[in-house]
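The material for today's practical consists of a large collection of protein records. A record pairs a protein's sequence with a compact description of its fold. Instead of coordinates, the fold is spelled out as a row of discrete tokens. We will come back to this pairing of sequence and fold again and again. Here is such a record, shown just as it appears in the course material.
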Amino acid sequence: MVRTASEPRRTRPWARLLGAGLLLGLALPVRALTVFACEPEWAALTRVLAPQAKLHVATHAGQDPHHIEARPSLIAQLRAADLAVCTGAGLESGWLPMLRQRAGREPVLFEASDYVALIDAQPGARATPWSGDVHAEGNPHIHTDPRRLLEVAAGLAEQLQALLPAAERPAVAQRLAAFQQDWRGRIAAWERQAAPLRGRAVAAQHSSFGYLFAWLGLRPVADLEPKPGMAPTPGHLQQLLERLRGQPPAAVVISSYQDPRPGRWLSGQLGGTPLLVLPATVAEDAAAPELAQWMDGLLQKLLAPAGR
């Protein structure tokens, strides 16, 4: 049957219900934002700003974020994501490009390092099989300085607001303001607490805590790695021992994902120098309280050799 121009258009039942819902101002359910976080610290920060987001975390505190396997599960998670939150500055260059290529889909990429000033830049440096973990742009381990987390949080909030429905954007801004206020207070307290650390020497493995050391005024005087990312060798450790024996550092510091044996050997050879194994980041399911607890724990471990 052909409908004439004078005949009313029939409305299907589901359309009438939809129209009634819109007239009554009823909000239809919105699909939660899906976020792929390369490291747990960015997952935690995302939870602070967008607690309703569905999160996948690629790494954990027991993994070296430079080197992980591009597993099929990670490929599927990246493919399903609306946003990928990563560090950048070359930290994930060994695996993220492969994931993105295999995923066959490009979520929006947020790189935290774009929002802060990096230390230890090596302009023009090029990675080779013999150069170790070279980061020409600078040290990518920015999350160990809580002041830089404030800067990243502001950038991440802006990115989340661009992806979320308009009705949800004011809540992101409110959560950001609350986090900034709380975090600034914590930074001031941490700086007062850590005052005894200023000027103390430490031997460390890799630059994992370079920003933490710079913030607290600790002096890295030796690196257990002969080159960044290369495992400590007996010959290099012996050289360090000969150099440090006359004036031992306050502590030997390694990360939770590093082999403790080289640090334990150097610590033992130096006599009273303690070995500190610091957690590289928070747990995969952490949020704001856990970020603060992680930083509390770092300071407590560092202060213990200082007699505090």
Q: What stands out?
A: The first strand starts at residue 34 and ends at 37. The chain is about 40% helix and 10% strand. The two ends are 89 Å apart (CA to CA).
